[in-house]
Design brief:
Length: 54
């Protein structure tokens, strides 16, 4: 299930403390603009990826 939540970065960080700032190659450099996107990591996919490396 996917969802979009709107608010200021402070509000979003308070609502989603485990969210991270993404680091996509398509994101502009921080010298150009400030990131206004938070993402919650999908723990199951992260675990699967780690297990696949073993």
């Amino acid at each position: 299930m996917h969802a979009i939540d709107f608010g200021t970065m402070d509000e979003l960080r308070a609502k989603h403390p485990d969210a991270i700032l993404p680091s996509f190659e398509t994101m502009p450099n921080s010298s150009v603009t400030a990131t206004n996107l938070l993402m919650k990591p999908n723990l199951m996919l992260a675990l699967a990826a780690q297990m696949a490396k073993c």
